[in-house]
Amino acid sequence: MPFPLIALQTFGLLKGLPPETLATAGERMHEGTFARRAVVLNKGEPSHALGFLIEGRLQAVDFTLDGREVGIYFVEPGDYFGELSIVDGEPNAEFIISVARSRAAFLPREIARRLMFESPVVAERISTRLARRLRSTASQRRLLGLPSPFQRLCAQLLMLIEHQQSDQPVVHAPPTHQEIAIMIDASRETVTRAFQALQAQRILRRDGDLLRIEDLAQLRAIAEGKRAAPKA
Predict the structure, then answer these.
(1) pLDDT per residue over 123-156, tens digit each?
(2) DSSP class of residue 162?
(3) Which of 3, 20, 141, 191 has the smallest number of Cβ neighbours within 10 A?
């Protein structure tokens, strides 16, 4: 059964493409469902299809030489993944795992490559995304070099913030403590204690599905080592 046209139009990469182009893509797509912690793409294996997340949440992860898991970035509904291997034909550079029960659609590699290289709009979106990903990865590496888990947590929160220039910067649908622990190379218990301290100092506040940053200057000062980590 072809993937519905209306659903294809919700994917940012495909938005605004001609209906006939979308229809061709939809005819070749197939879906997959993944339990929590399932491997969606394996590191070291080539991608045979470009993935689009329909629902759930995915995370790119890798492992250090001593076997510790490190989170790199998240994939949210409407986003795509596995594009680097589609572009150059080389194996995937990281694992993609589901951090919640997830559903994804997959577009075969040959169709995806045709879209990437024949559509200027798609090519620009892919290029911009790869550039942004490179910058984010470089920032993540610098973050892991910070001396304390508390500093790394604050630096990670700064990277996750949306609308930093607004009066009330927020993190939408913040990662769980375990997910953040993987990203900053710390234990979940350490992350939980740090969150409690930041909330006690009114530096941040939980508000439903939002994490509101109440004192951006103080959060940045801790991340930069200019202020000692507060006590819970």
Answers:
(1) 999 999 889 888 888 888 888 889 899 999 999 9
(2) B
(3) 20
- Does some domain include residue 97? yes
Query: Collapsing DSSP states into helix, strand and coil, what is residue 137?
Result: helix
What is the C-alpha separation between 195 and 218, in angstroms, rounded? 14
Tokens representing residue 178 in the block: 């375990």
User: Whole-angstrom Cα distance, residue 133 to residue 197?
Assistant: 31
Q: What spatial distance separates the first Cα and last Cα of the chain, rounded to whole Å? A: 55
Which of 100, 125, 143 lies at the terminal end of a domain, its last residue? Answer: 143
| Number of residues written out for the chain | 232
Please give the pLDDT value at position 133: 84
Task: List Cβ neighbours of 215 (8 Å cut-off, separation of 6 or more).
Answer: 201, 202, 203, 204
Identify the sign of the CA torsion 36, 42, 48, 49: positive
Helix (H) or strand (E) holding 12: none
For residues 22 and 110, membership in a common domain is answered with yes
**What are the backbone dihedrals phi and psi of residue 154, each rounded to the nearest 5 degrees, phi first?**
-65, -40
